[in-house]
Amino acid sequence: MHVLILGTRGVPSKHSGFETFAQDFALFLRSRDHEVTVYCQGSKEEMAREDTWNGIRRVILPAGDGSVGTMVFDWKSIRHSLRENGVVLTLGYNTGIFNLLYRVVGKPNIMNMDGIEWVREKWSRPARMWFWFNEWAGARVAHHLVADHPEIARHLSRHTASDKITVIPYGADPVTAAPLGLIQKYDLRSDAYYLLIARPEPENSILEIVRAYSLRRRGMPLVVLGNYQPNGTRYQKMVLEAAGPEILFLGAIFDRDIVKALRFYARGYFHGHRVGGTNPSLVESLAAGNAVIAHDNRFTRWVAGEGARYFRSCEDVDALLNSLNADPKQLVAMREASRTRYRESFTQDKILTAYEELLLQFEPAVSSTQPVPYVPQKAKSAASS
Questions:
Q1: pTM exceeds 0.70
Q2: Cβ(266)–Cβ(195) below 8 Å
Q3: Which of 40, 118, 135, 185 keeps 20 to 30 A from 148, CA to CA?
Q4: Which domains does the chain have, with CATH numbers?
Q5: What is the C-alpha to C-alpha distance for residues 331 and 344, in angstroms, rounded to an integer?
């Protein structure tokens, strides 16, 4: 099978989320002897070209930066992929209307619909309207949809038939050990700090967590990963102003080994995301056996399970921290619950195999070596298998 992966900045991954998934899935497919092409976004000054990275074909297309550059890149990627034999995996629906071209030529396109982007507070009204329109368009024109969470599948069923949607969450590799030196260079000790990893956006509850943590001395730092600048956005400034002396901002770290070590040795992990589906960062924390303290909503409860602790306010966070400090034995049960939930639903091999099996259902329609008529099949949810 030849798989064409569109919708990310490309490989190797220099970001989190879809870029990391694209890299992991591409390498997985190559290990299973499939051909893989990943479309990569270049600068406006670059020439369009192709090369190979770890056996994966890269098609690098010049497009520039920003939202306009992303739209140009998506358009060029789709136009190029129309000339290729293979099944398309589109990651994200932000330019979903462009995928109508695949319908016109009858080329199967599987689209991971990501989260409900148009509800995020950071977007202007015109941007939200654009995202809503492309969610609607992508759900209708794609041949099949992947939802990373049952609630996302339920949301998408208002746009299309439910049997056109397969639930496959994100996966992660287990973290069972990490070099202690990777955290010691930040003057951190094992089991002596809490961790928060999230983009500095209001719907991630960072301000609420930082304010709650800063209400009183905790005896250990809260380590915050992300880009927080004194001259940054209004929200970044609010977080920095609310931070007490025990809040440690390490910046945005994309070195996967360092992030894994920070997770592995953390006393607990804060996850404040209020919107979206299965968040990769939360899954990675389950894989590291973190004691999870998460915002109480329908998305995080399904992912983290009943063994996590949940909050809705600053007061809740303060009370949870006081309780864990008074009775640290709770952390042992929380960590074991995270590992159990991870093994149940989020092991990397299970998730990537589910994607492979789904794409193989569409492969005969486009294969040059197997001209067998395509017969759609109802795919089952990987999360329930």
A1: yes
A2: yes
A3: 40
A4: 2-171+347-384 (3.40.50.2000), 181-345 (3.40.50.2000)
A5: 20
